[in-house]
Amino acid sequence: MDRLRAALWAFAAAFAVHVADEAAGGFSEWAQDRASPRYTQRDFVRNNALGLAVTLAATALATRPRRRGFRLHYALVLTQQAAGNAVFHGATRAPGRLTAIGIVLPLWAGITQLACQRALLRRRDVATALAVGGAAHGVAVAHQVYFLGPPGRRGLVSPETATEDRRAVARAARARGRTRRP
Known about the structure:
Oligomer: single chain
Structural class: mainly alpha
């Protein structure tokens, strides 16, 4: 197995370690307290099971001999999970930040370097992946953790309900001794 292929499979394993770190740190409770009181352990399991399944499937495709779909895998799976998630965890101090920043992000940087050395990626591909992957992660977090989006879709809430959620989160923060206002 070549180094890039091994690094791509290691990324899938690192994602699983990161999810375990989030679970051990109480991500569901953190999200209920700081994002949306509607967030449940079931949401956590569903979101991360889907993320791991997509990661494994995309990695299986990207590690085939001709590496078809590598750039798409790089942008929508690797960069979204590594760079987007590191920014989210760093900015919010959510459980899982140590593995997001200390394991997944450096592994992504190594994959980026290997892919550039093999001419699978150029600088503009990396820049595009950061923009697309960052946006994809932002949308995913807004929908899956904060339940923001157009009302009427399963799991999403109206602007009024989102305002109620923000107020509930602010009350929980004040109860913890913080003074955050909605």
